[in-house]
Structure formats: structure tokens, C-alpha cells
Amino acid sequence: NSSESHNCAKSILTSDRLQIVVTLSEFFNETWEAANCANCLKNNSEGLSNSTEEFLDLFNKSLTCFEHNLQGQAIDLSPNNYTEVCKNCNETYTKLNDLYNHLQRINRQGGESAHSAHLCIDVEDAMNITRKLWSRTFNCSLPCSDTVPVIAVSSFILFLPIVFYLSSFLHSKQKKRILILPKRIQSNASLVNIQEKYS
């Protein structure tokens, strides 16, 4: 029915008591919005954005790398010894992690999809799965590049009290001890003289 009149829409969409078509339409629209699906698409929604395709490609490469390095070794390895996976898949995982962080920064500013806030749920779930495998299952970790600045700042803060007390000690006025001489009666010879005068 090509008619777009109000009566036609009312008879088709709301004719039943449950209004199942309207309810389902609202449900799918709310799910689409909550999952930020538009953030994975190009502006005109003709397909996946270039960055999403790049991310999903790297995601598949990471999973393939994990699987490839575990083949035939999963039985022999102890649960905490996945050094081959960590070593061989480090580069792929690092690229994926960097791309995800980059996409988050772009998305906050309104990137390819012109939608802001969160990435679409597919990208976020894919990254969560990869990070969980990398850190919890394989016990791998990325080297921290901020180690030197952290150590430098920590050392500076630790030495601040020492510098403070030394400078306050050196620059404060030293109180010199002034000896106060008590007022005593003059020597014994003068005492004898006084007694002689009165006698």
C-alpha cells in the first residue's frame, strides 16, 4: 500500500490491541540507539566506516594470532605460561589497542559517523574480548612507556621534605646562647671591708 495517509497508517500499525508493529519498531530503534550502531557506519549509513573496517580487520588478525600460537601447545602449557602468545602477538595486539584508543579520541570529537560519545557496541565488545584474553587468559602485559617520568616525579616528591628541612636549618637565624651573669655580692675582700666599717 503506497498511501501515506494517517488513516492507512492507523489501520495497519495500530489495528491490533497490542500494537505489535509499533512496539517492535520502538524496541529496535531504542536498541539501535543504545548500542550506538550508527557510530560504526558512514554518515549516509551505506556501509561500515573505514576505521571500523580497519579495526575489525586487526581484531580478526589478533584472534588468528592467538589461535595460531596456541595450536598444539594448549595441552602442554600450564595455565600461566603463554609466553609464545605474548611474544608473537604483541605487535598485533599493540596496533589494535592503539587503534581503539585513537578511535575513542576521534569519536569524542564527532568522527566519521558524525555521532559522538561511545563507539558502537560491536567495536567495544571486540576490544573487551581481546583485552580479557590478553590480560586474564594469557597473563600478558604491555610495557609501560611512562616508567621513567613516574620514577623521576616520585623521587622528586620523596626528596622534597629533606630539601625543605635542610634549607630551613641553613637559612634560619641561629639563636646564640647569651650567658646572663648573676649579680653577686663582690668578692670576700670587699665583704671584710664593709664589716670593718660598721664595727
TrEMBL record:
The yes or no answer to whether the keyword Transmembrane helix is present is yes
| Recorded coiled-coil stretches | none
State which residue ranges cross the membrane: 148-170
Name the InterPro entries on file: Osteopetrosis-assoc_TM_1
- What domain of life is recorded for the organism? Eukaryota
User: Gene Ontology terms, cellular component aspect?
Assistant: cytosol
Task: Give the keywords, sorted.
Answer: Membrane, Transmembrane, Transmembrane helix
Q: Would you tell me the protein name for this molecule?
A: OSTM1 protein
Q: Which species does the entry assign this protein to?
A: Sterrhoptilus dennistouni
